[in-house]
Inverse folding.
């Protein structure tokens, strides 16, 4: 008997629920609108958007042109002065009201995220839950974090599609709590529907938030370089990040640019293979489409037989399939390792990187296969890819220096500690790294030589929540660091120096 789409996540039903909760997001004909000048308007030039789950068309992105985006920025800037004068207790009350209302729609938000960006139910739920509970921590602690600091004005947000809630919405609500007005661009690859729902709730609560859709070519100048923008928060690829950093080098405005890097996991003098297996499994959350995914394993050569046995036994048990399918209507949603990558184009680029690696001399050690029983018969599977792994990746391979942002691992074998450190530093800076060793003192000492902002010892490191700081070294981050008190400081003015990775110096917090 073939599977069915679970009635609890059927998209037309979710869309009907959204229209009942936030009807203002939609035009009379059902088209999605942009939020600017304090109200939902401007359907822009609609661009059809399809789900990576099965190719279903979910709606159309309301793409704005440059002139309309400029209107949005100028109106958002006008809100900044009035909002900055609002008493902190009143700002807290409004943000708390927003969180309380968002909690009522966690299920709906998480299920929309499933269709938009292909997350499993568990990961979609976690994304919105982490956003709400993370902002709650700031609401509860803002007096001590803010002190006498003053807001910057208008903060512009451009973020990638992979964490629309726990990265983008979270940042926006903290920026508003600190007294700033905010404009955010919806990621064009996915997330605009769930973000429209949550921003509509925020606007109803009296928060000065603006949400616009459009291509980078039309909107980047307005959202990055316009004089009305006082601060830019960017999460995305290194190419775009470098261009933005160059554009801002002559501007005197605050910025936080989170970019990609090759996050590496080094293994030396190690024997806890069961513990590593648990980490390998967890590391495949969302098909490694995370800025903190570990995609390069640097392994002491003599340990390769144990490593490859552990790797095979772990990865072959991962289930990859359509996250909306069940056997019968009353079943729970499936427990999958991950679903699709973000779209067909990304899947094809992963194929290109893999083929290039093989052509330049890499050796494949694992090629997973998709299980057709985890899909609907005849459904579009173009965005799905099973895990793959390579060893002996040559330096002339593009993948050697690049984060694949998908389920491809590379393994590099080394004979000396100096080689291990060199291979772990291949991308000139990373957000996270890890070292596994039975000799913890050695690992702690060697970790200081790895150019990653956060280092795990016999464990993975993540972005972190609440008081935990976050940033990157080298080319993986430019500008102010965030997380905990640093996020508040990044979007406010005061007499304390801003910590971050700047052109002239890198100022690190005492504890990471």
């Amino acid at each position: 008997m073939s599977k069915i789409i679970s009635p609890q996540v059927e998209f037309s039903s979710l869309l009907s629920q959204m229209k009942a909760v936030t009807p203002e997001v939609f035009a009379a004909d059902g088209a999605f609108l942009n939020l600017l000048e304090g109200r939902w308007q401007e359907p822009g030039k609609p661009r059809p958007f399809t789900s990576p789950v099965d190719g279903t068309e979910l709606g159309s992105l309301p793409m704005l042109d440059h002139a309309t985006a400029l209107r949005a920025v100028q109106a958002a800037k006008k809100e900044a002065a009035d909002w900055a004068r609002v008493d902190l207790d009143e700002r807290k009350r409004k943000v708390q009201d927003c969180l309380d209302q968002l909690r009522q729609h966690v299920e709906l938000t998480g299920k929309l995220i499933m269709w938009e960006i292909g997350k499993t139910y568990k990961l979609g739920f976690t994304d919105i839950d982490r956003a709400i509970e993370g902002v709650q921590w700031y609401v509860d602690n803002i007096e001590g974090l803010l002190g006498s600091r003053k807001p910057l004005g208008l903060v512009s947000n451009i973020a990638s599609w992979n964490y629309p809630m726990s990265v983008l919405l979270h940042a926006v609500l903290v920026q508003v709590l600190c007294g700033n007005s905010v404009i955010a661009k919806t990621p064009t690859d996915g997330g605009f529907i769930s973000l429209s729902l949550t921003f509509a709730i925020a606007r109803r609560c009296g928060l000065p938030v603006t949400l616009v859709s459009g291509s980078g070519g039309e909107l980047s100048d307005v959202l990055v370089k316009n004089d009305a923008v006082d601060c830019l928060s960017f999460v995305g690829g290194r190419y775009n990040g470098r261009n933005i950093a160059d554009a801002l080098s002559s501007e005197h405005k605050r910025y936080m640019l989170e970019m990609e890097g090759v996050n590496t996991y080094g293994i030396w003098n190690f024997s806890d293979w069961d513990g590593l297996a648990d980490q390998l499994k967890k590391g495949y959350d969302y098909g490694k489409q995370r800025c903190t995914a570990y995609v390069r394993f640097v392994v002491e050569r003599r340990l390769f037989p144990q490593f490859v046995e552990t790797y095979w036994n772990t990865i072959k048990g991962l289930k990859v399939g359509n996250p909306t399918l069940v056997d019968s209507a009353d079943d729970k949603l499936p427990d999958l390792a991950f679903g699709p990558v973000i779209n067909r184009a990304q899947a094809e680029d992963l194929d290109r990187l893999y083929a290039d690696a093989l052509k330049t001399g890499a050796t494949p050690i694992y090629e997973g296969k998709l299980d057709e029983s985890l899909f609907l018969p005849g459904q579009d599977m173009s965005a799905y890819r099973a895990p793959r792994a390579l060893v002996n990746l040559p330096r002339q391979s593009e993948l050697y220096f690049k984060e694949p942002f998908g389920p491809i691992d590379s393994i590099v074998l080394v004979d000396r500690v100096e080689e291990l450190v060199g291979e772990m530093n291949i991308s000139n800076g990373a957000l996270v790294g890890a070292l596994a060793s039975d000799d913890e003192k050695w690992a702690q000492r060697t970790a200081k030589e790895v150019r990653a902002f956060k280092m795990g010892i016999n464990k993975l490191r993540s972005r972190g929540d609440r008081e935990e700081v976050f940033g990157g070294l080298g080319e993986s981050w430019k500008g102010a660091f965030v997380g905990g008190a640093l996020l508040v400081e990044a979007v406010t003015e005061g007499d304390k120096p801003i910590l971050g990775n700047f052109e002239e110096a890198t100022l690190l917090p005492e504890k990471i």
About this structure: The mean pLDDT is 95. The longest helix spans residues 121-146.
